[in-house]
Amino acid sequence: MVQFSLPQNSKILKGKYYKDKSGSSNIKKVNVYRWSPSSKENPRIDTFEINIKECGPKVLDILFKIKNEIDPSLTFRRSCAHGVCGSCAMNVDGVNTLSCIKSHSDIKGDLNIYPLPHLKVVKDLVGDLSTLYKQYESVEPWLKTTAGEKTSVEIQQSQEDRAKLDGYYECILCACCSTSCPSYWWNGDKYLGPAVLLQAYRWITDSRDEERKARLKKVADELKLYRCHTIMNCTNSCPKGLNPAKAIASIKKMLATS
Ligand code: SF4
Ligand code: SF4
Ligand code: FES
To answer: Which of 43, 126, 174, 195 could form a cystine bridge with 35, CB 3.0-4.6 A?
Structure first.
């Protein structure tokens, strides 16, 4: 069997254990990844015994209970708490998801919570998404049309054309798909990844946009687009039920037939 020798401070160690003090019989053990850039210590997994009878139903509720009642230094991102903003994305029990819509009762046994995979960790459960945001900016995610410059009249779209955006405009850029994509793990600095390519397609396919050809040309690149090998992890992991792999396939088809 292959043996890997990892740098000392990359090894994840066993962390602190916080015992329940309520005496409840409804205890869930929650294992949470912890790492802080301000300490020279290795990452660790802290374990918290949580009385789930005194906790809301979602994984995010557990994180708040830990932060409010046990360890205020626990760091995670969240905003809307309703599956709309995408900021609470993390890896829960091996699956990338939104912690505010994931029920902890779905997970039998211990609950394991990690940051989204293959991102540089900022602190605890917060991953660094700055590369992904730069890539998003690179596809110029706004309507490009001269029609809107000349008049204040609304640019209309037929119902059929509007329907073509369904399944794409709903993307909340949570990055669950991109951080579950093996091609993005290994080439994330060059390959745009499923989240950004889905966004690119959303603008390519908008009937009101006048830059379709230029947009297609921009992504038609061995590294930016064709690193997708149709592994489908992205589609399986989208918490909004979207299909980034289909968007990527549609871009490839448009390029092959244009
Ligand atoms: S396609 Fe789904 S998983 Fe990917 S960023 Fe958008 S909402 Fe998140
Ligand atoms: S289908 Fe493409 S984008 Fe999706 S996980 Fe596979 S390689 Fe990544
Ligand atoms: S907090 Fe906004 S999607 Fe979870």
So the answer is: 43
In the chain, the domains with their CATH numbers are 8-127 (3.10.20.30), 130-257 (1.10.1060.10)
What DSSP string runs through 222-234? TTTTTT-----HH
Instruction: State residue 231's pLDDT score.
Output: 82
Q: Which of 144, 147, 142, 229 is nearest to 185 (CA)?
A: 229
Q: Which residues neighbour 20 within 8 Å (Cβ) at sequence distance 6 or greater? A: 27, 49, 50, 51
Residue 76 C-alpha to ligand 3 middle, in angstroms? 11
- Tens digits of residue pLDDT in 104-117: 999 999 999 999 99
Q: How confident is the model at residue 51 (pLDDT cuts 50, 70, 90)?
A: very high
The Å distance, Cα 101 to ligand 3 centre, comes to 8
- Catalogue the E-assigned strands of the chain: 13-18, 27-34, 44-51, 89-92, 95-98, 111-114, 121-123, 126-127
User: Where on the phi/psi map is residue 175: left (φ > 0), alpha (ψ -120 to 50), or beta?
Assistant: left
Which residue's CA is the nearest one to ligand 1's atom 3?
A: 238
Q: Cα(99) to centroid of ligand 3, in Å?
A: 7
